Amino acid sequence: MRIHDRHSSPLVRTARCLLAVLCLLLAAWVLPWLYRFATAGKQDTPFALYSHITGGFAFAGRSGGQARYYGADGQEFSESAFDSILPFFYFRQLTADGRFPDSISGVAVTPYDVQRSNFTFRTTPQECNRKGVPLYPLLESRSGRVDLTMPDDVFRMERRMEFIDMGSNSVNEDKSRAFTSMLEKKGFAFPPSLIAGNGTARKEYDNGYMMTDAAGKLYNVRMQAGRPYVRPIAMPDGVCPAHMAVTEFRARDMLAFLFDTQGRFWVLTSEYDMMQVEIPPFYPERMSMVIIGNMFDWTIRVVADDGEHLYAVDAQTLERIGTYTFPQPEPSVAERIGKYLLPVKLTFLSAKDRDVYPRFSFFSE
């Protein structure tokens, strides 16, 4: 008579294997997080802007528990002097102190001029890679009113431009035909490959949407006085937009920022001219960018896998006038040990998108 060991049955062995795999996955998820949490050190990079006054980058950080203001050449500044070398950023403080200059580089300026020309732009991989619902509100661009209002309908772009009333969930055929007819008249090939816009009334004015059609051609689509406005836009040879952002800054001198498949950064002006920004290749799906601009220059901060970089460009020509790279910190002892103790980690979230799913990577990444 053969006695079967119930602990060695196929079902038990399978359960044990599954339990072992589950424990390994749990360890790959929890242990690296706990290790980083216990050994994490503070690694802040200082606030930085290009100074038109000094012709170099200026930094504000902390050292020994005290605020420190200094230039790229090592020159130290007091807080008051730091305000003065960055008059476009600290114009409110300078105005309150009665120290705002009448002119800068021979150009007469007022606080209103500064406020009107200043702008900030930010793009992150999370925002760029976000998957949204392909329904877009089209605001009235020429209402004659100061305050914008949200429409009662949204549009979608497939084989035509179709407007859907949000209250009744019905298609507005007349409006859909009018916009579709105008798009086709201007040579638009459905369906579009890219759509970019700011579908909100929380802005001073509306420039509609930037779209690339199935053939890769660029268009500006708006609603003006209830009627369709479609403007084809010529692009330089070889430019294929990969990502776009409608700017709608207060100065109204730009329509959009475009990033093409070769990593080039373009500005579309209000006159529908395209100007290239002179910085190294930038890919918004995996790199972050912050721009702080004024009437004389822009400070562009790029965060990539190889570190943080600063670029200053002339506001008129968009040519580069300054570059600075923050030094990469040396790996700590804890990081070097963790690389060998916990070589692989499991995560469900990423700084480069908003999707939730299992991701395996090396501990050092």
Short overview:
The protein is of the alpha+beta class and 365 residues long. The chain has helices at residues 10-39, 79-85, 91-97, 111-117, 125-128, 173-185, 333-341; strands at 47-51, 56-63, 66-71, 76-77, 103-104, 107-108, 119-123, 153-157, 161-165, 194-197, 209-212, 218-224, 227-233, 241-246, 254-260, 265-269, 274-277, 288-293, 297-304, 307-314, 320-325, 344-347, 359-362. The chain has 3 domains: 6-37 and 329-362, no CATH class; 47-117, no CATH class; 124-296, no CATH class.
Throw out a few tags for this protein:
4-stranded antiparallel beta sheet, 23 strands, 3 domains, 33% strand, alpha+beta, 365 residues
Describe the structure.
With 365 residues, the chain is an alpha+beta fold. It folds into 3 domains: 6-37 and 329-362, no CATH class; 47-117, no CATH class; 124-296, no CATH class. The chain is 21% helix and 33% strand. The protein has helices spanning 10-39, 79-85, 91-97, 111-117, 125-128, 173-185, 333-341, and strands at 47-51, 56-63, 66-71, 76-77, 103-104, 107-108, 119-123, 153-157, 161-165, 194-197, 209-212, 218-224, 227-233, 241-246, 254-260, 265-269, 274-277, 288-293, 297-304, 307-314, 320-325, 344-347, 359-362. Strands 7-18-19-20-21 form a 5-stranded antiparallel beta sheet. Strand 2 and strand 3 (66-71) form a beta hairpin. The protein is flat and about 75 Å long. It starts with 9 loop residues before the first helix and ends with a strand. InterPro entries: DUF4857. This is DUF4857 domain-containing protein. Pfam families: DUF4857.
